[in-house]
Amino acid sequence: MKAFLTIGLLIISNTFMVMAWYGHLKFSEWKWFSKLGLISIILVSWGIALFEYAFQVPANKIGFRENGGPFSLIQLKVIQEVITLVVFAVFTLIVFKTETFRLNHIISFIFLILAVYFMFKK
C-alpha cells in the first residue's frame, strides 16, 4: 500500500513540476500571460512548484525505508526520475503538439525501465 501511495504522490508531484518548469512556455500563448515579465513568470512557476513539494515531500517520507516505507533512498530517486520522464513525455505530447517521439526516444525509455529493474534486483 505504501509503495502505491508513494508512486501516486510522485506522479502528482511530477505533474506539477513539469507544469512549473515547462508549462510557462505554452502558457505564453495566453494573452494575459504573454505580457508578464521574467520575474512574474518565475513567481508563477514557484507558485506551481509549491504544489510539487506538497506531494513530493510526503511521497519521500512515506516511501523511505527508514520511515517504514518500502524503498531505499536510491530506489526512491530512480523511481522519481523515471516518473519525471514519463510525465514529461505525456505532457509534451499533449500540450506541445509540435514535439514527436522517435525511435531513439523509445530506446531511451527502454533503458530507463531496465535501470529500474536493475535497481530493484538483489
Automatic annotation (TrEMBL):
Membrane-spanning parts: 36-55, 76-96, 102-120
Q: Does the keyword Disulfide bond apply?
A: no
Pfam families per UniProt: DMT_6
Classify the source by domain of life.
Answer: Bacteria
Which of UniProt's keywords are assigned here?
Membrane, Transmembrane, Transmembrane helix
Keyword flag Metal-binding: no
What name has this protein been given in UniProt?
DMT family protein
Give the originating organism.
Flagellimonas sediminis
